[in-house]
Amino acid sequence: MIVPVTAVFAAVLGLLLLVLSGQVVKYRLKYRKGLGINDDPEFEAAVRAHGNLVEYAPMGLIMLAIAELNGVSGTLIYWTGMALVVGRILHAWGMINGKGQPHKARMLGILLTWLAVLVAALLLFWNVWQVYG
């Protein structure tokens, strides 16, 4: 069985991971720092934007894929995945452009990501209840 909707979101998030990894590498080369960060807030923001994607994207994608495999509507998977991807992009953009300071894009990205994870969890519960309840 395949999960084409989730696959598209995984591909987009994979590309975002490469972009954010490039940002971190740029600062690692600039400061010759192979591990950790220094006192540059832009360096720290790049590391955290990358790290935050790695912290949230896998669980969101796993939840979407399970829901898609279990037969949840592709439309629901699509809109939940869109919230996850847009949330991660906004968060990363807000982190990098806000240099770690509060930024509207970052806050909206957090909310969209949390909403996507919540909706995916509810879809999974609902799906299991429909099948086994």
TrEMBL record:
The organism's place on the tree of life at top rank: Bacteria
Keyword Cell membrane set for record: no
SUPFAM superfamilies xrefs: MAPEG domain-like
Keywords, ordered alphabetically: Membrane, Transmembrane, Transmembrane helix
Alphabetized Gene3D superfamilies for the sequence: Membrane associated eicosanoid/glutathione metabolism-like domain (1.20.120.550)
Membrane-spanning ranges: 108-129
Cellular compartment(s): Membrane
A matching Pfam family: MAPEG
InterPro entries per UniProt: MAPEG-like_dom_sf (IPR023352), Membr-assoc_MAPEG (IPR001129)
GO cellular component, one term: membrane
UniProt cross-references to PANTHER family, sorted A to Z: GLUTATHIONE S-TRANSFERASE-RELATED, PTHR35814
Stated name of the protein: Glutathione metabolism protein
Species: Marinobacter fuscus
